[in-house]
Amino acid sequence: MKLKLGMVGGGQGAFIGGVHRIAARIDGQWELIAGALSSDAERAKASASDLGIAPERAYTDYEDMAKAEAARSDGIDAVAIVTPNHMHAGPAVAFLRAGIHVICDKPLAATPEQAEEIAKAQRDSGKLFILTHNYTGYPLVRQAREMVARGDLGELRVVHVEYVQDWLAEETTGKQADWRVDPQRSGAGGCVGDIGTHAFNLASFVTGLKTDKLAADLQAFVPGRQVDDNVHVMLRFAGGARGMLWASQVAVGNENALRLRVHGTQGGIEWAQENPNVMTFTRFGQPKQILTRGGAGSTEAGNRVTRIPPGHPEGYLEGFATIYNEAAAMIRHADRGEALPKGLHAPNITDGLEGMHFISACIASSKADGVWTPLG
Amino acid sequence: MKLKLGMVGGGQGAFIGGVHRIAARIDGQWELIAGALSSDAERAKASASDLGIAPERAYTDYEDMAKAEAARSDGIDAVAIVTPNHMHAGPAVAFLRAGIHVICDKPLAATPEQAEEIAKAQRDSGKLFILTHNYTGYPLVRQAREMVARGDLGELRVVHVEYVQDWLAEETTGKQADWRVDPQRSGAGGCVGDIGTHAFNLASFVTGLKTDKLAADLQAFVPGRQVDDNVHVMLRFAGGARGMLWASQVAVGNENALRLRVHGTQGGIEWAQENPNVMTFTRFGQPKQILTRGGAGSTEAGNRVTRIPPGHPEGYLEGFATIYNEAAAMIRHADRGEALPKGLHAPNITDGLEGMHFISACIASSKADGVWTPLG
Amino acid sequence: MKLKLGMVGGGQGAFIGGVHRIAARIDGQWELIAGALSSDAERAKASASDLGIAPERAYTDYEDMAKAEAARSDGIDAVAIVTPNHMHAGPAVAFLRAGIHVICDKPLAATPEQAEEIAKAQRDSGKLFILTHNYTGYPLVRQAREMVARGDLGELRVVHVEYVQDWLAEETTGKQADWRVDPQRSGAGGCVGDIGTHAFNLASFVTGLKTDKLAADLQAFVPGRQVDDNVHVMLRFAGGARGMLWASQVAVGNENALRLRVHGTQGGIEWAQENPNVMTFTRFGQPKQILTRGGAGSTEAGNRVTRIPPGHPEGYLEGFATIYNEAAAMIRHADRGEALPKGLHAPNITDGLEGMHFISACIASSKADGVWTPLG
Amino acid sequence: MKLKLGMVGGGQGAFIGGVHRIAARIDGQWELIAGALSSDAERAKASASDLGIAPERAYTDYEDMAKAEAARSDGIDAVAIVTPNHMHAGPAVAFLRAGIHVICDKPLAATPEQAEEIAKAQRDSGKLFILTHNYTGYPLVRQAREMVARGDLGELRVVHVEYVQDWLAEETTGKQADWRVDPQRSGAGGCVGDIGTHAFNLASFVTGLKTDKLAADLQAFVPGRQVDDNVHVMLRFAGGARGMLWASQVAVGNENALRLRVHGTQGGIEWAQENPNVMTFTRFGQPKQILTRGGAGSTEAGNRVTRIPPGHPEGYLEGFATIYNEAAAMIRHADRGEALPKGLHAPNITDGLEGMHFISACIASSKADGVWTPLG
User: Fold this and answer.
1) CA-to-CA distance for D56 and D64, rounded, in angstroms?
2) pLDDT > 70: what percent of chain A?
3) CATH architecture of the region C137-308+351-367
4) pTM of the model
5) C25, C27, C276 ranked by CB distance to D313: nearest
6) What's the ipTM?
7) Rounded distance, CA D292 to CA C374, Å?
8) Closest chain B residue to C284 measured between Cα atoms?
9) Does chain D have fewer CB atoms within 10 Å around its N or its C terminus?
10) Under a CB-based contact definition with an 8 Å cutoff, are residues B269 and B144 in contact?
11) Which residues in chain C have their CB less than 8 angstroms from residue D307's CB?
């Protein structure tokens, strides 16, 4: 039986909603049957119709939707929230209170206050809250995490992560750009929230390291821009490892260059999402190895979320789909009261709060001229 | 409304059936509702159950299935045939005769006779026959074809294509390997049929060139192997261009290295499926360009089949899904009696026959010590 | 007529001395005819003999050598100083005072005081002082500088440079390692002086930007190490551009990974010394280009120092040789009292002092917990 | 003591002569002291003067030079012949007869008859004849040969080699192009002689395989061209391995793309000269390794001809220099009557004759419509 999915946001013209829908379809675990796809009634209706959602399950108000779906015997199992950042907290709280699991786009919210509201609602409800830090769904990212955890790299020393784009290098207009550079909708962080949090989450996920404090230098290069578009951060991790993080939306020549490098006493790895089926691994003093998804040297954690043989590339949508798969498995197990199988993982409210702390610390440090600032 | 899909083959333990199913799901155009998933009754039933197929639509015999589905008012719109090569013709003919569109894995058949049977049934039925030469679904492959067609490369001179693996470098056993090295099931061609046809199809698709004749040197390197596992071919195209084709399943260090290089009087391109979101293009005398899927310099033909922004990799499954998408669009247009929209494309019976001619010519040339042998 | 070269340091067992000698030979501008190759008399003599230096030109003391060579009518035109850092100032001052041009390995000295001594001697003597920041000799580095200068990248915004190795990831012994981790010989900076200065110099050379201030986080990861082995720096340039610099000798999986990325309002470039014949360049909104040394799109500044056709790689030694070539041309022009030809360039005492300021600022900032620290 | 080198050809405006001179200088083993640099007296004189050759050692006739140098007590130890192909035999024979070692550019000659003349003169004289198949001087090429020889790849099965350029894609004029497309000067083979022989030699050198027979398809794509500019060859090696060779001067988008792939029962390697400091190696069933020149996993044969640490690229000139180094060592050992040290290697007359047989067989096979043609 497929699980029943609802969606808030993601109407005609939106980007990430479509991604969530493909992700939900790929492995056949989900069926989209309800939505408040737009706050504009006409668009909401038309969007629902495009997607084969029955008219009576097409809402214009997420509060109504939460109540109505909670009341139905065939109500949705989970809702996907794919609105701009400032519109996460409202629906998240509403659905959690209605006893419906939530899958939410990142970052968690536009403000720390909103984030805390969501966290409280999650705790009170006991429902699942899954944040789509989708890059954690890539098989080689899972494998990297496993390799670090089992000691292949020795004790970690230096972590470098970057997420670099150029699409906001000039003053831009358009649905995707507009809200991201508007602090009312994106929150105080621009680039740091939009992609810096992905980079931070990826580094945290793979290394398992907690960031003690950071020193940041944020800049808005495009004239008139009210949020940062380039982010430089130095990191100090608990236990002594050090790191650097770079996020930019003005680095001409880059599309979605998310890249992670981790170095320990005995090994180093390097992975980049633009060619995500390949990772290099070097044991100190030995030749560098090219590890491929599912290929020689692949590990349980990566193979668990791999669909096709090595050499046949999986991509962004498959990684995203893995988050939806994990969510489905979690819901099925939770509903049956079973323990989760080993290796199952999805980013959760804690990751969301850490991302918010990261944003806040970056902004605070940068305002204080780069002073080392603790997280959380 | 989703189209209704049936499947022949693809039961538990199969590989390519699962790929077809994901491909059919990705864009939400298809719903799998019937299947003769295995000739083993128990496995057929269990496999159907796994896939949410209703018991009354789970068949053990494709003839029964073709008749029953044709008779139902809610019968399937198309059937996907995902059996080993020697089992294509039977179901293909049965479903075509029953008036049901067919989507069939490649190569077309195990023998020229079977291929002709299918072709005849297709002509007689007037139904769609789509062959899943899935690599033609990659956006940059579409773009390459468009660039060649509009003259970006000038007049073509030299074409190099290769599809190189190593998974059969040793005597292997297992469901995937067994039938591929058994001439009764794979046909007289081993590697040449399994992946050589993909390479040949890709080169033909992108360049638009017809192969006049070829000189081949086929070899079975693994002791005791009854079909070729390494294929060297020189090609002469109508109009004077020349080419080389290499297919191998024993080239240690390769996974699914399908790579195409096309050179004309004014430009050259290079594409490889293991990192399919990137293609290089050089105009003579100018710097080489890196073209990305959907990125700067991308064209209509590629963008038409692109789902997500550049820098977010799409992969093998998305390319495969595009074939299913195109099939869906063709069926919808055919059912409405409408002309197909510009740019829509799916490999068809003609491609299948050309692939069979390619296999036959390679085997004939190689037996005749490499004599230049015409195709078809 | 070849110019006459002397050498201080570089006896048997040394590394960089041999590099200087090859560099001096490649283009046939220099002849090595004198040396104080070791402070050990036996080794000095044997080393000289190996290199075909006449016994009467083989010295054990650089002071003696400076005096003797200055006194000869056939005395050396220039001396190459290839000793450990703390041994640069002595010979540099001695030869400059003796009226002999100096070519000196980097960094300039072990201490700011020594650096100032050299600078003063250079000013007083009016002789040439050339610092072998050899990476500035790579043709594509010259081209990158020219492209930035002529505005191909627009106004610069973000600069990333890194020089990453792993050879000191463990406690090491050996002639090359020993002095580099001994603050008495290397100076207070370890990695920051040895390779951080190369990275800093490369970024400065290509961008033409002056660094206003920096915030640094230096670390000695290897237990017991007395100098830094990993260096994180954030940079603020005059005019508003920002940067990051990473230097490491403990990043497992890296050999000599010196890499520069420069992004401006209209374009971005990326270059890495391990494959130095290739550079990417992207104009905003256009496909990324692969520029090759001497190939399509190459420019005057790079071609001026290119020896062979594109596709035939030049390497580290050729880039180093270009510094020796430039030095030779400078000396010939200086001796003739002629103006230098356009484009001729060699790193000089100013670059050396800036490198020393960079080291000092990094150490000071890091000690002050990362406070933004001005240079110079 | 440096060895004394003479040169025939390589006057002003020539390309390869300058390469030979740099190669001879790099390791300090040679001194250029005589030359017949041009058959034009003025140019010969001016070229000699540029190079610091004394007027009395500047000849206009190679016969005169051979006699005069043989007669001097300080005569040259070896002569480098860097003329177009049809001008190799004359000077080669003259110098060999005069008892002077010969270093000659490739291919051996313009015609089989000339080649035999040289071979005879070499046998009669007992002097060294070294052919500058310079790609055999790359450290990783030496290492690849060693790895094959010691069995790292198991029994060889499939060899692919290609040398691809685009500089003759259009009708070209200029000193370098002119003689290469003139059968009077280049010989009957165009591309096949100029770069096909390099590819053939590289494959033979690394694999140690003898080519039994080949089937070739040669083409002249540029209208009016009298020699081939694109070469397709299938190869059968003694012992059963198979191969393909592609050489082209019209493949737009390529500079000097010489690339070798060797696959055996247990391993595969891949190397390309445009980034020659890197080679991949895969043991069957294990992750692909990236081997770097001098890095982890490097071997004796490569390290023997390596000058600088891994990560600092060596290039084309260093590989070429290694041939000169080996020549110097051979001469010194020959003069002392000593056995050659292990590992020392330079391409010789046998390689030259095999290259000529390769050219002849390619032309013969292609004329006979691709019939399998034995070599030699």
Assistant:
1) 12
2) 100
3) 2-Layer Sandwich (3.30)
4) 0.97
5) C276
6) 0.96
7) 40
8) B296
9) N
10) yes
11) 18, 22, 317
